[in-house]
Amino acid sequence: MEFDMNLARRAVHYLFLVVTILMAVSGFGIIDYQIVGPLTGGLLTKTFSFQIHNFLAIPFAILLILHVGIVLFLKKGRK
Amino acid sequence: MRRVLTVLAIICLWSSGCLKLSQPIKLNATEVRQYQGKDLSSVNDFRENSIKGPQYIDADTYKLKVDGLVDTPKEYTIPQVIDNHQNYQKSVTLNCVEGWSVAILWEGVLVRDLLKEAGPKSGANTVIFHAVDGYTTSFPIGYFTDHDILMAYKMNNVTIPPERGFPFMLVAEDKWGYKWVKWITEIEVSNDSSYEGYWESRGYSDTGNLNESSIK
For chain B, how many structural domains are there in total? Predict the structure, then answer.
């Protein structure tokens, strides 16, 4: 099976977008827990937000490096 | 699309607190911002993250209770706490689990002195702090008997404002910020070593030690 660079690149970009959104939402869950908790029906508590935030920290850093690396060094195959 | 995402990211950061600016608090004196050659943070550098928002306690009717497993339950007015006990000053940094920290010059009385007056009974092993908003947190009694832990009434030489815990805030050295209970109304001596306070019952560490994770 041939490695599809475009697919990988797109996957990194979209994964980075998803992880960034989750980081932001869980960040809200930590800082503004009085608002986010009730808004999510008690699902996103401050403690759960911390767990998500901590869990995603390393994936976020890796995806950020990949995302920037792809943009800087792989010019999307454009000529 | 990218511009929209960038703008959204900036809005998210701003409103999530990373760049949030707070209103300055009115103080009853000028803050000191240096102590023994060390820079101090400001009273305004804290982030408001209490469970029910700032509490405004009436100083005239306020009473601090020291009760539970003690020989002589006590009740103090604010002047009785401050004037009838040795006062101490200490610069201690509060580290919040949210990632911010503030170095403040605290002035207060030793919790140990208050406990000694009430006289913990044999079997007492836990001290539970109650706040006016229903917040609670607990410590092993040895934390107070073995260390000089302050219950502060001044920060940076100004009376602790209502937004920061007037009249008394615990300076829980070497503990995460959620152990620094504000608006203290009661110090309960107990033999319930498994007691879990507000955040502890929601997954935070019971010890709250700075050198350990804040999450269980």
Answer: 1
